[in-house]
Amino acid sequence: MRNLIVDVTPLKAEASFRRLWVGGALSSLGSRMTTFAVVLQVYQITGSSAAVGAVGLATLVPTLVMGLIGGSLADAVDRRKLVLVTGSSMAVVSLLFAAQALAGNENVWPLYVLTTVQSLLFAVDGPARRTFVPRLLPKDLLPAGLTLQMLAFHASVLLGPSLGGVLAAAGGVKICYIIDALTFFAALYGVFRLPPMRVEGTSSPPGIRSIWEGLRYVGHNKIVAGAMLSDLSATVLAMPFAILPALNDARFGGSPTTLGLLNAAPAVGGVLAMTLSGPVGGATRKGTWLLGAGAVWGTALACLGLTGHLWLALTLLIVAGAADSTAVVLRGSIVQMSIPDEFRGRTTSVDFVVGSGGPHLGNFRGGMVASATTPSVSLLTGGLSSIAAIALIALCFPALRRYGTSADPAPGSDPDPGQPSNGENVSVGDPK
C-alpha cells in the first residue's frame, strides 16, 4: 500500500515546498470559489447564458496574449519577487470583487473588467510560479511534488464550487470573494519564505527576441515539443465538457443532477489517480507512460460516445480524468527535467498557454461537431482522433517515447530523434 498511495516525501523533506504547497492548495480552493461566484453573479444580473459564456472569453484572451510575455519576464528577473508582485495584485483584485458585491453592483461590466485584469496578472504569475518546484526539489522527488500539486488542484475543483454554493446561499457571493482574498495571504507567505529565485545561467532581457528564442527552443527540443503536442492532441481533439449537456439530454434524461455528476466525474478520477499515484511517481519510462495515458484518455471518451448506461458513462469519465491528471504530472516532470533554468520561464509559459488554450479550443470543436451531427459522433470522432494523434507523436518523436529508458537527457540537451536519449541530468528542485 505504501508503494500505491501518493508519495508525500516532498512535504516532509523540504519545508519551503511544504509552505508553498499548503498556501497554493488554500489559494486554489479560493480561486474556484471566485470562479463559481463570478459565473453566478453574472447570471443573476443578466439571466443570460451568453453573458456567462463571455466570462470564459474574458479569461482566455488575456491568458493567450500575456502567457508568453510572462515567461519572458520570468527568465529576466528574480521570479520570487515577480510572483510577490503579481500575487499581491491579484489579492487586490479579489478585494475589488468583494467591494463591488458589497456595494450591490447590478452592472456586468465591472465583473468582465476584473476578470480580465485578474487573467492578465495570472498569465504572468502562473509561468513564474511553476519554476519554483524544480528549484526546490531534487530530480527524484519532482514527480511526487508535481503529483501533490495536481492532487490539490483536483480537490479544489471538487470542493470549491460546492463550498462556494453553500456560502453564496448563506451570505451572498461577497463571502466567496472575501475568502478568496484571504487565501492569497497563505500563498504569498509561502512565496515570501522562499530563497531568491534568480535565473541560473544567462538571463535574457524581456521582449520579442526573448519570446522568439523560447519558442525556438521548444521547437528544437524534441522531448519537450512532443510532450506538449501530446497535451494538445488530448485537449483540442477530445475535450468532452461542451458535449455533456447534449449527451445528458439525449441519453440520461436531462436532469441537472445527472449533468452535475457527469461534470464532476473527471475530477473524481483526478483525485483518485493522484491519491494512488505511487507507481507514476516511481516510473522510469515516463515517455511511454505519458503516451499511454493519452491513449487511455482517447479510448475512454470514444467509448463514452457509445454507451447509454449512466453508471458506465460516469466510470468512463472517471477513467478519462485519471488518465488526464496522470498525463499532466508526467508531462510536467518530463518538461521540467529536460530544460535548463535559463529557459524554464519561457518554456513553462508555452506549456501554460497550451494547457490553458487547448481545452477551450477542444470544447469549441466538440460543441460544433455535436451540433452538426450528434453528441455520440462528436465524442467518438474526438476520442479516435486523439488516439491516432498519440500514435503519430510516438512515431515522429522517438526521443519522447524512449525518455527514461536510459539516463534522462541533461537539461538543455537536444537528443537526436533517431538516437536513444543519453547524458546526465542535474538535480532540479503551481499554486494559484
Automatic annotation (TrEMBL):
Q: Which organism is it from?
A: Streptomyces vulcanius
Record membrane topology = Multi-pass membrane protein
Task: Report the protein name in the record.
Answer: MFS transporter
Note the Pfam families from the entry: MFS_3
Residue ranges annotated as transmembrane are: 20-43, 49-70, 82-103, 166-192, 223-247, 259-277, 289-312, 377-400
Tell whether Flavoprotein is among the UniProt keywords: no
- Provide this UniProt record's keywords sorted from A to Z: Cell membrane, Membrane, Transmembrane, Transmembrane helix, Transport
- What residue spans carry the region label Disordered? 406-432
Cell compartment(s), UniProt? Cell inner membrane
